């Protein structure tokens, strides 16, 4: 009887070690990597708290069948510590807009991401869109909005995707995807807030560029339900903020702003790049063409895009690559591709990336956020992006990549 009891205890202990506890007992290579830094990263690592630094590094190893296996390591990872995700949320809107359109195409022959998409206005502050000179046809399309939102982080493109999907479906789907520390409450860069953020524009899709063959019409919408409630520690940032021409001497309240935790950002990226590794109930409902569109827009340098077209003088190859590239500071290492989405606002810098170097057998996920606002005043456009933030992310990405090369 005693031996049976001992065997039971041992089996329980082994079961625990097979789960999250095992990851905690293993050495954290991310911490070891950072500990050896004495120059490039030291300024931020010496005071990670004031910089709101969070890092999530996931190693990827493939078995003999080519199946990827993941092991994640965090540094100061705090899912309930608020940071403003800025444009990093655009991947969610792009993926969910394609998902919504995919569901409609099953009922409406001829409807596709390249169909003409015209947006009207029906509430104060809303704006219509009938033309898009960056598209092949000169008309807006959902596919072009996806490309613009991901290639160069275009704010208007995100807003049109937000309006098409609507806040109710956006937040319901975030929950279904297992992104439980996230919410989307407003458009970007237009001062969107209650009640305008609850109202969405009328949208219509057409089969022809003359907009005469209507395929689908979506009326103006209004979401009257409650916003998602998240258990965040503190949604106030800074010591003051600029409002108009005045300085308000109190922290800025982000309680009604978009939210995305760093683990949720990486989980979403993984769902786009490795859908087969996500539980079936939590997968995006997309087809191969949808995944291909997202992956191309996440990885392509802006200058290689034909529609929309971008001037390399204003949009260098690493314009939207903070990790390894520093947002245009440096090129990516030869042979390296980064599938990523960045964010930059209110002193926060975010990059959520999958890095691949096929020739050297390197692939990993790396997500990072830091806050560079020494004076503590938000909205004054005095942030240390170029002096501290972007060089840190460039050096961090390169340090992890070099460690992966050595492995």
Summarize this entry quickly.
With 407 residues, the protein is an alpha+beta fold.
Helix and strand topology:
Layout: H1 2-17, H2 20-25, H3 29-35, H4 42-45, E1 54-62, E2 68-75, H5 90-105, E3 116-119, H6 142-151, H7 155-165, H8 167-176, E4 182-183, E5 199-200, E6 203-206, E7 214-218, E8 221-222, E9 236-237, E10 240-243, E11 246-248, E12 252-253, E13 259-260, H9 262-273, H10 288-299, E14 337-345, E15 348-357, E16 362-371, E17 377-378, H11 385-406
Parallel strand pairs: 10-17
Antiparallel strand pairs: 1-2, 1-16, 3-6, 4-13, 5-8, 6-7, 9-12, 10-11, 14-15, 15-16
Task: Characterize the structure shown.
The structure is a single chain. The chain has 407 residues and is of the alpha+beta class. Helix content is 31%, strand content 20%. The protein contains 11 helices and 17 strands. The protein has helices at residues 2-17, 20-25, 29-35, 42-45, 90-105, 142-151, 155-165, 167-176, 262-273, 288-299, 385-406, and strands at 54-62, 68-75, 116-119, 182-183, 199-200, 203-206, 214-218, 221-222, 236-237, 240-243, 246-248, 252-253, 259-260, 337-345, 348-357, 362-371, 377-378. The strands form 6 sheets. A 5-stranded antiparallel β-sheet has the order 2-1-16-15-14, with helices on both faces. The chain has a 3-stranded antiparallel β-sheet with strand order 3-6-7, covered by helices on one side. The protein has a 3-stranded mixed β-sheet with strand order 11-10-17, with no helix packed on it. Strand 15 and strand 16 (362-371) form a beta hairpin. The termini are far apart.
């Amino acid at each position: 009887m005693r031996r049976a009891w001992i065997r039971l205890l041992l089996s329980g202990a082994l079961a625990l070690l097979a789960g999250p506890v095992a990851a905690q007992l293993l050495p954290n290579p991310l911490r070891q990597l950072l500990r050896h830094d004495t120059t490039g990263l030291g300024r931020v690592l010496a005071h990670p708290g004031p910089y709101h630094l969070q890092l999530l590094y996931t190693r990827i190893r493939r078995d003999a069948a080519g199946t990827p296996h993941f092991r994640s390591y965090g540094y100061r990872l705090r899912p309930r510590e608020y940071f403003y995700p800025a444009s990093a949320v655009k991947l969610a809107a792009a993926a969910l807009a394609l998902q919504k359109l995919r569901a409609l195409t099953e009922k409406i022959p001829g409807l596709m991401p390249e169909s003409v998409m015209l947006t009207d206005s029906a509430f104060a502050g809303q704006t219509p869109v009938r033309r898009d000179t960056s598209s092949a046809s000169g008309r807006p399309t959902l596919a072009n909005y996806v490309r613009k939102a991901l290639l160069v982080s275009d704010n208007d493109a995100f807003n049109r995707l937000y309006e098409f999907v609507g806040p109710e479906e956006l937040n319901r789907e975030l929950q279904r995807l297992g992104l439980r520390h996230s919410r989307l409450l407003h458009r970007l860069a237009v001062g969107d807030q209650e009640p305008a953020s609850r109202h969405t524009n009328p949208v219509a899709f057409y089969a022809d560029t003359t907009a005469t063959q209507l395929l689908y019409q979506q009326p103006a919408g209004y979401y009257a339900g409650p916003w998602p409630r998240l258990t965040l520690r503190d949604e106030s940032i800074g010591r003051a903020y600029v409002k108009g021409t005045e300085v308000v001497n109190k922290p800025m309240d982000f309680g009604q702003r978009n939210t995305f935790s760093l683990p949720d950002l990486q989980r979403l990226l993984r769902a786009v790049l490795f859908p087969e590794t996500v539980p079936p109930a939590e997968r995006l409902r997309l087809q191969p063409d949808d995944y291909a569109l997202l992956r191309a827009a996440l990885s392509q340098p802006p200058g290689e895009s034909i529609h929309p077209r971008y001037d390399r003088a204003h949009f260098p190859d690493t314009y939207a690559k903070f990790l390894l590239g520093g947002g245009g500071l440096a090129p990516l290492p030869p042979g390296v591709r980064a599938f990523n989405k960045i964010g930059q606002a209110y002193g926060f810098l975010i990059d959520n990336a999958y890095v691949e170097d096929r020739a050297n057998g390197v692939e990993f996920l790396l997500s990072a956020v830091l806050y560079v606002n020494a004076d503590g005043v938000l909205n004054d456009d005095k942030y240390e992006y170029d002096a501290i933030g972007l060089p840190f992310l460039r050096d961090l990405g390169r340090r992890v990549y070099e460690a992966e090369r050595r492995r």
